Amino acid sequence: MSVDYRHPLRLGLLLTPGDDGPQAAVERARLGEELGYDLVSFRPGASELDPWTLLSWTAARTTRIHLAAHPGGPGINPALVARAAASLDLLADGRAELILSAEPGLDEAIDIVRGIWTAHLRSPLSFAGEHHRLAGAERGPAPAHNLPILLTGTPDPALLRLAGTKADGWLRPPADGGSATDSWAGAEGQAGANAAIDQAAVAAGRDPREIHRLTHITGRFTTAADNADSSLTGTPERWISALLPLILDQGVSTLILTTDDPATIRRFATDVAPALRAARGEIPRSEQVPSLYVRRHRRDGIAYDAVPESLAGSAIEPGDAGFGRVRSTYLRGGSPGLVLRPGTPGEVAEAVRFARTQPVKLSVRSGGHGISGRSTNNGGIVIDLSRLHAIEILDKATRRVRVEPGARWRDVAAALSPHGWALSSGDYGGVGVGGLATSGGIGWLVREHGLTVDHLRAVDLVLADGTRVRADEEENAELFWGVRGAGANFGIVTSFEFEADEVGEVGFGQFVMDASDTAGFLERWGAVMEAAPRDLTSFLIIGRPRLGQPTVAQVMAVVDSRDAETIIARLQPLASVAPVLDYSIQVLPYEAIMNAPQAPHDGQGEPVTRSALAGHLTPELAGDVGRLIAGGLSYFFAIRSVGGAVADVPSDATAYAGRSANFQLVAFGANRRALDSAWDAMLPHFSGLYLNFETDLRPERLHDAYPEAHLGRLRALKRRYDPDNVFRDNFNITPEPDQARSQSSR
Amino acid sequence: MPDYGHELMFGSFITPANASPKEVVSLVRESEAAGLDLATFQDHPYQSAYLDTWTLMSYAAARTERIRLSGNVINLPLRPPAVLARAAASLDLLSGGRFELGLGSGAFWDAIEAMGGRRLTPGQAVEALSEAIDVIRGVWDVADRSLFRVDGTYYQVDGAKRGPAPAHDIGIWLGAYKPKMLRLTGAKADGWLPSLPYMKSLDEIAQANEIIDAAAVEAGREPAAVRRLLNLGGSFGPRSDRLLSGPPEQWAEQLAALTLEYGLSGYIVMGDDAATIRTFGEEVAPLVRDLVATERATRGGGIAGAGR
Ligand SMILES: Cc1cc2nc3c(=O)[nH]c(=O)nc-3n(C[C@H](O)[C@H](O)[C@H](O)COP(=O)(O)OP(=O)(O)OC[C@H]3O[C@@H](n4cnc5c(N)ncnc54)[C@H](O)[C@@H]3O)c2cc1C
């Protein structure tokens, strides 16, 4: 009777570093990768060299091959091993696997390793076992992928039971420990072992197909089959005929060749592997059974088994190890049911075609910095574009650059800097390209160079039906108009073409100012900015006043000049707006201002903000803001100066409409109701809304952002390009008009 | 005495954050590109926000060519010395002699115990470190054909095979502050690696030097056998009268003084910032080398190049 656990065939190498030194062993691992082997491991205890060090080094010198770490026992500290294995996996982009040897306490060690990897549990890990004890160890990090734990040891019942109950695979050792090249275990006893594993798996509620069956093989290539039955000695044909039954009948999916002989490594790859792989064929992902843990964490309404093959490999589900790194955004906690991570525009199209058939929320994410936080959800699907992050110079003469949505503005700045170019984007380099460049982009050079969308020359989009189109001033011109200010409603932009500006070093001033007279401070700052030449752009932030301390404002300003006199001349008026408590003035490459740390998002809860555009910081507006801050309703209040080049462009030239405003305001609050009621009362002061700082989801906000004529054109576009309203995650422009009317008196 | 005459060494101190492994590795490469001699990493195996320092160092060493790497400092209580010695030698062999072993006796005992480690008193921890150094040197000493046995209070080795021998004489540098640790440093270590933020004043460096020197002499060693390094932080900006708060020239003058008057010869800049690393490697380091070389030349005498 033959068994088939539906795992793809994998071929590996077990290397024993020898007298020719560790570099030679690494070279053999690299040879293995070159020849198409799937897995490499270094034998523990066989030489004085440390296998973990060798494997970590090898990880850095390879790109594709998987790395099976096998810590030498006895006396390993499983908590430390767990962290080290996760570290290896993170460094090697998900290529690590962990082999644990049969020894007393293995059962406990597995629990501890998995416990450490369960990073999303906030409680520390305690464990009182017979062999291992932990007294409140921190959990984490989670590995990059579902790092398999493979148990190795002779097929004794206890080990097989443990493999079936808790592990991801059983690795059969060479019959005599592997010292002789013809000590091959063959297929003998495999069926019995399989049955024991299967039985234990079923008893534990698992599917036997969750557990991989691996075996070591050893042998010698000779010209004739001079062979004893059980040995792999002979011609490649002899090898093939001996190995095929293992793969096709005995359910073994990974063969690990134990050899250090480069000729044997080559010969197996060229003369044996192709026949084995052909006989096994491809195993579609949909036929591979995810673990019980993964299945248990699935959410209703998503047809997980129907995820397209091209996306299944990189998708992340709630039960997957990497989930903690993709669930939330910068500002909002989320718990999606499925995160699709397409790597090409074609895969984005497949993702859209799949997602639109699923009766759950759909979110689109580029950099995950959306302030409204709609790029995550609860129980729905996220299309995460972070793998699309290329930045490419298209034409030096016209400064034309192509940027993919998952790139961050930090990376864009760094890529353009060597050419003496920059694109004004925003004030924070961690922000993603996709969300910002489909909406506006109020950056450090906005008054001189305009909005980010003003530099957009063409986009490639995936539409709601999965078709791919290009839009620019000639082709799909109306769509191109809509993308520059309301892009999220019409499709997923997979590529942006911008015209960059020539920007050298800039002056960067930072001032801490006494803003006790908040209203007066705002008025004076506003007046300075309205009168300032365009090469000055300034943003300010006011925090929640601390009891008994003056209200303090941070004013930041960029002068597009490296000339000290110009910089001082521009900053002087700003510095006289209020008493300066501290300041620094630097001359920096634009790239340096955009530098920001990289880390996975860990937002919690719901962000609460209100936002607006204003023509002027009138005494009335400044007074209201002063009261808002003094009343503690906003713990973080910011104003960005706009105007200048932004206002050169007619309002109807792009979907972004608020061209006349000189200021963009945002208030972060802790209490939705309180902030809304205060802000709603301020609406008469405002001239419009830039949606990228808004979190109020009431439909009125659309009317604040888009005048009637704009909204009419946008709805017509929506009817044409997304009549079923697939893209509705963020400030949805519905195909048909909504009932709400603007409450603002513009 | 001070100025033990060591060749100067400049390094970085990189947080092994697991939130962004790529960035950590890229800071190592930045350090190399900036001409630094050394990239170092703290080791807190009980800290879930960090990458395993050993795995990281092995990986980063494979991504660089010239720069040396060291723990700063390796947590001995959670890393058994015999395994550590083999791993260190393996990494030294792989990297062509680019590994140094910064070592600490352990400080956060609750966390060490939480990870299944053994709790020791600070005094015991120093004794354990002393034993561990013997174990480590014993593993490396392949010239010794005798069976390798250690029957210590804290560590036992029972007739294990020695080896591998590292590619170069790996320096064992101790993070030490208290007299007992300082005496151990003088007696057995190749380097002393404290952190400036933990020191009350520069006088503490002078006092520690005296203890180390005395212990070295007592153990029959030259005081210059122990290199003195320092982890330090600071900021680049306009001139000030504070230590390491000013332009690169001011840093250089101050560090040169630390070499000539306090005997320090290794400076490791803290802060995970590529710009700081660049300024430190490209501007500060060459200036300090010049200042020190000039002064040493005028002082004359045969101190150049003592120790390693
Ligand atoms: C710290 C911080 C500072 C900021 N500073 C500025 C600033 O100075 N100036 C400024 O203008 N803005 C600023 N913003 C706001 C920023 O522009 C928006 O948050 C923007 O949406 C973030 O883009 P993202 O790709 O990172 O966001 P995501 O959260 O990934 O996306 C936000 C939304 O954009 C849409 N979207 C994303 N990708 C695509 C795509 N490829 N195609 C179509 N639609 C897409 C989706 O609807 C999604 O919900 C800042 C935000 C933060 C958090």
From TrEMBL, chain A:
A Pfam match: FAD_binding_4
Signal peptide location: none
Key word Manganese present: no
Highest taxon in the source lineage: Bacteria
Keyword Repeat applies: no
InterPro entries xref list: BBE, FAD-bd_PCMH, FAD-bd_PCMH-like_sf, FAD-bd_PCMH_sub1, FAD-bd_PCMH_sub2, FAD-linked_Oxidoreductase, Luciferase-like_dom, Luciferase-like_sf
Cofactor: FAD
Name of the featured protein: FAD/FMN-containing dehydrogenase
Automatic annotation (TrEMBL), chain B:
Domain Luciferase-like: 10-231
Pfam families: Bac_luciferase
Signal peptide: none
InterPro entries (alphabetical): F420-G6PD/mer (IPR050564), Luciferase-like_dom (IPR011251), Luciferase-like_sf (IPR036661)
Domain of life according to the entry: Bacteria
Keywords recorded for this protein, A-Z: Monooxygenase, Oxidoreductase
GO MF term (any one): oxidoreductase activity, acting on paired donors, with incorporation or reduction of molecular oxygen
The keyword Oxidoreductase belongs to this UniProt entry's keyword annotation: yes
Keyword Iron tagged: no
Protein name listed in UniProt: Luciferase-like monooxygenase
Organism: Nonomuraea fuscirosea
